[in-house]
Amino acid sequence: MSSFPYRLVATDLDGTLLRADDSVSDRTRDALAAATAAGAAHIVVTGRAVPWTRHILDDLGYEGLAVCGQGAQVYHAGEHRLLTSLTLDRQLAGLALSKIEAEVGPLAVAASRDGLEGDVLIGPGYRTHEGPLPYVPYEDPRELWSAPLTKLYIQHPELGDDELTRIARETAGALVGVVMAGPGIVEIVPLGLSKATGLSLAARRLGVKAAETIAFGDMPNDIPMFGWAAHGVAMANAHEELKAVADEVTGSNEEDGIAVVLERLLGA
Q1: pLDDT tens digits, one per residue of 151-176
Q2: Is 212 helix (H, G, I), strand (E, B) or coil?
Q3: Which whole number is the average pLDDT over 71-98?
Q4: Cβ atoms within 10 A of the Cβ of 130, count?
Q5: Which among 116, 113, 120, 112 has a CA at the least distance from the CA of 66?
Q6: What would you report as the CA-atom Rg of the chain, rounded to the nearest whole angstrom?
Q7: Is the pLDDT of residue 72 over 70?
Q8: Those residues with Cβ within 8 angstroms of residue 37's Cβ, 6 or more apart along the chain or in another chain
Q9: Which residues, 6+ apart, have CB-to-CB distance to 23 below 8 Å?
Q10: Sorting pLDDT into bands at 50, 70 and 90, what band is 132?
Q11: Are 195 and 221 in contact (CB under 8 A)?
């Protein structure tokens, strides 16, 4: 087996490492294990906040660092411990929401509360994805702002994700960050925050540099991570904005796209 050219393998979760049923194939598990055996660390970098990530990492037997919440949280999976957490300024977030709604009309809003056990609050009209992820409905808008938040999720009854993201950035981009993390998932995060922010913090803890990192992703929120890493690999199912800045495109998350690249690099 040839030497592996990277010391860090950064993978997004949804649409990248995970298949549609939230599982990871044996082939991809084996490829990541081989990369680890060759001296690389594997780090998960996801838009999901820690409470929506922990169960997946536990199921995978993953014990390393994970970057969660679009870079806001660095989590030690083996110790079940939150190492860093950046919260959203609620006053700025409220102002941003007001500006966006003044432009496009009423939004459906959800939010992730800070912390290892932080609830995800779902407001009236917000469309949730089917699955086991827990959430707490709210009716009174005051509940939304009653505790520290890592991010907001916004939906519009008519606008698509790309259009809503564009308008939100144009309207409130001086106050907050706006990212598209998946179908129906447009998020408001602290200004300047990105997956690259959290990944750089985690990499520093591991003693690894950007030039030693390969990253895999599928959505526009992975663009900063690709900009930070030495090599960015988009999945075949990736958003066109990410493919446009990727160094290469591999197979889809259902076709072991991560394993295809790792096996090639390992000379397997």
Answers
A1: 999 999 999 999 999 999 999 999 99
A2: helix
A3: 96
A4: 5
A5: 116
A6: 18
A7: yes
A8: none
A9: none
A10: low
A11: yes
DSSP 182: E
Q: 110: closest CA among 52, 66, 56, 194?
A: 52
Q: Is there a contact between 235 and 16 (Cβ–Cβ < 8 Å)?
A: yes
d(CA 69, CA 86): 9
Of residues 206, 172, 177, 182, the one with CA closest to residue 192: 177
Q: Which tokens is 70 given?
A: 């679009």
Give the mean pLDDT of the chain.
94
Q: Evaluate whether 16 touches 220 at the Cβ level (below 8 Å).
A: no
Question: Is the confidence at residue 1, as pLDDT, over 50?
Answer: no
- Residue 213 DSSP SS3: strand
The answer to whether 44 touches 17, Cβ cutoff 8 Å, is yes
Which of 133 and 100 is assigned the larger pLDDT?
A: 100
Provide the 8-state DSSP code for 24: -
Among 32, 157, 152, 163, CA closest to 92: 152
Q: Is 219 helix (H, G, I), strand (E, B) or coil?
A: coil
- With beta carbons less than 8 A apart as the criterion, state whether 72 and 86 touch: yes
Q: Are 151 and 122 in contact (CB under 8 A)?
A: no
Q: CA 186, CA 163: separation in Å to the nearest integer?
A: 10
